[in-house]
Each structure stands twice: as structure tokens, then as C-alpha cells.
Amino acid sequence: MSVKPLIVAVVGHTNTGKTSLLRTLTRDASFGDVSDRPATTRHVEGAAVLVNGKPIMELYDTPGLEDSIGLLDHLDSLASGRRTQGIELIEQFLASDEANKEFAQEAKALRQVLSSDVALYVIDARDRVLGKHSDELNILARCAKPVVPVLNFIANEDAKVGIWREHLARVNMHAVAEFDTVVLDELCEQRLYEKMRSLLDANVDQLNSLIEDRCNLHRDLKRASAQLVGDMLIDVAAYVTYVQTGDSPQTENALSTLRKIVSSREQRCVDQLLELHCFRPEDCLPDTLPIEGGKWGYDLFSPQAMKQFGLTAGGGIAAGAATGFVFDAMVGGVSGGAMTLIGAVIGGVLGAGRSQGKRLIRKAQGETELRCDDQTLRLLALRQLMLTRALLCRGHAAQQPLVMPKPGRLKLPQTSVAIMPASIQLARTKAHWSHIVTDAQGYKAPDPARLEAVRSLTEHLLQLLKKDENKQIEFP
């Protein structure tokens, strides 16, 4: 037998974040209109929360209570000194002409409360406690429905949580939930449902299912994000291209192409993460996230980008010369121009000094192999992990562009060869694992060994994401 969805009315004064709360609880950034202008919502709008494809809760956004003082006076006048129950006064008011005239907005909200199982009374915790708030709670109490006050925007430095809790206790409101529709905290959402559960004996099973589903959703989002990042890292680590030694122009062209290919692959991962977390491309803007026109603004291979994340390029690299690539000279001769370029890269990226680079070049014959170095892979991993962290705690009502957490600094070993995860090291030897080019050209059958490498790397990345957000991310 199907279970009737829990019906929830979201009410409160104008401009307290009622629509924002629905956006965040439903993970739908497009629900309703969010604005700093008062009385943005003029009609009742609803949205369903699904669990296993079935609606378990219906949330209804209501117009703001604009004149609670006038309405409370009107309700008192209806009583005319009689000992009348509050619900009878509310019903009498809704049947009167005033409900369609000067108190039309309030009437819409109260009708929804009466047809709901519970009301969430949204309070902007940054506001001062005023008489209108007590009047609104007084009116809602007469509806004979459970009411859960929700303190919104608690992450803001101006939030007056303690003052509000004291005031609510004085009007006998003790099941208070703290929330923030901009900075999402999964524990705050869970506690909101727990407060509702404490007042709704008939809906305990539904709310338990909802709490469990939200926990699973957060866990699954972390895993899916780590898998997307891991797949991207395997793609880049395995990718290799070749140039003919002795051809400096060809080498420089190959470097430029390789940069574009790797940057494009990273951008695809960014797009996938945004879609996975139900955000839009416009949620990330250049002034807060290092992207420009939908692309990461910082050059992935620039010393500035590496410095931001606590990474350093090798000191032997000439200014701006091929940062982020390793050349493996294999066979054939090398021209003087190519020798200078390749020597700088080997000496800088491998950290072995220019003399070591020259020694390797002397042994070089034939073609030269180009691929991304470990530091570039670290930078790719760090940027995507930090983006994932930011998305996991971003509410879907956020109006400001994404603000990335401050990058942590890595404690890198001062050796020429840093240890990378085994899956990355293995990918270095499996050029056919890279789908960077084949994805664009057509379908490529999955390689079981590659799938296992992505799985292993996903587990490694998950451990990094599970670290406390105030701590740095270290990769590997």
C-alpha cells in the first residue's frame, strides 16, 4: 500500500529565505524566484522530495506574512471576548471577505498550513527579534498544526542564533532547527528532519527513510565525485604523445597541443562535477573560482597555479618553458635547439639538475616521449578535490558564485622522484588506458585492468575527501 507523502508548509515573514529552503531541501536550484526584494512569492508553489523514485514529502512555498500585526488584531476582534478556540477563529477568518482583500497573502499561507501535516516557520537569523515575529507565531499556533521554527543563514557572521533561541523558548517553541540554505551542512539537514519527527508520530517511518536517503545521497555523491576525478587522472597519466627528436618546432607544437588536450580533459571533469551535484555552469564565476568563460582561468601549467596549491615546478625550467611535462628521450639524435628545451625540462621537472638532463640527452636517440609530470597530476587532483569539497557544502539556494576553500599546502618530499599512488604509476605504462582522444573519436571497450585502477584511485581520493575540511588535502 502506498504511503501518503508528508505535507509541509513553509511559512514566515517576507524575505526570510522560504524559497531558498525549498531549493536546498529539494536540490533544485531553479525552484521558484529568489530575490532580495520583499514579497517575491505571491502564490503557493509546491515541490516533491523523492525516495526510491516515490514522493515521500511535499513542500509548499507560501507568500510572506506581510501584516501579522493587523491580522492578529482582526482575529482578536472576531473573538469579541468569547472563549473561542484558535482554529475556529482561523476558519472564520478564511471564510470572510477580509481573506480575499487586505489579508489575501496571509490567507493563502494559512490555508496551506491547515492542509499540511507540519509547518516550517523560517526565520532569518540575521534579523533582530521584533514584535511581528511573536505575532506570526501566535497566529500559526492557532492553526492547531505542529510548527518547527527554522533559523536560516546561521553560517553568516551576523546570525543571532542564541538570541533567537532564547526568544523562541519564551513563546514555548523548543523544537528549533538551525539551517543555512547557502552553506549546506548535512548534519543540520538531518537535525531538521529529526525535529519534525519529534512532533509527528504518524510520520516517523517517512522521516526515518528521508534521513537515511539523505545520508546515502551524500555518501554516493562523494564516491561518484571521486570516481570522476580518478577517471580523469588515469586518462591524463596514461596519455602520451611523440615527437621526432631534432625537430624543435614540432616539439613546441606538440607541447601546445598537449596542454590544450589536458586542460580540455580537466574542464570536462569540472562540467561533470557540476552536473552531478545539480549545479549550473553559471554557479562558478571567474572572480571566485579560477575559471574564465567556463574554463579554468589559471594556466594549468603555470608556476602561479602550482604555487597557489603549494606546489613548485622544478628550478631548472627556463621561464615559461614547458612547465608540467616530462620528456623521455628514447632513440635517435637530438638537435641543438631541441637539446636546450629538453634539457631544461628534464633538469627542472625531474629536479635532477641541468647536468643530469644533459646526461640523459646524450643517450637520447630517435623519438621523444611527452607526457604530464607528477606535479601537474597533483595539481589536477587538488583542484578537482577542492571543487568537490566546495560543491558538497554548497546550498542550492546560493546566489553568490562559488567560493573555493583556501588551498592547503602539500608536504612534498624533497627528492627527484615522489611516490604516486600505484594506480597512477601503472597508468604511466598503459598508454591505451587514456580515453582523452578516443572519447572524441568513438566508443572504446572498457579495459578491466583500467577499471580496477580507477576503482583503486577512487578509494584513495575518498580518503582525502573524508578528512576534516579545515585540514589540508595531501596528494598522494
Essential attributes:
476 residues, alpha/beta, Rossmann fold, 2 domains, 6-stranded mixed sheet, 3-stranded antiparallel sheet, 46% helix
Write structural notes for this entry:
α8 runs antiparallel to α9 and α11 crosses α12. This protein has two domains: 194 residues, P-loop containing nucleotide triphosphate hydrolases (Rossmann fold, 3-Layer(aba) Sandwich), CATH 3.40.50.300; 225 residues, no CATH class. β2 and β3 form a beta hairpin. With 476 residues, the protein is an alpha/beta fold.
Tell me briefly what this model is.
By secondary structure, this protein is an alpha/beta fold. The chain has 16 helices and eleven strands.
Query: Roughly how much helix do the residues carry, as a percent range?
Result: 40-55%
Report the portion of residues in β strands.
5-15%
Structural class by SSE content: alpha/beta
Mean pLDDT: 77
Enumerate how many helices there are, as a single number: 16
Q: Return the string of H and E elements.
A: EHEEHHHEHEHEHHEHEEHEHHEHHHH
Number of strands: 11
Q: State the separation between the terminal residues, measured CA to CA.
A: 51 Å
The outline comes out as: elongated
Tell me the domain tally. Answer: 2
Cα-based radius of gyration, to the nearest Å: 29 Å
* Lateral arrangement of strands in the main beta sheet: 2-3-1-4-5-6
Low-confidence stretches: 34-41, 286-298, 314-365, 405-418
Tell me about the largest β-sheet. Answer: 6 strands, mixed
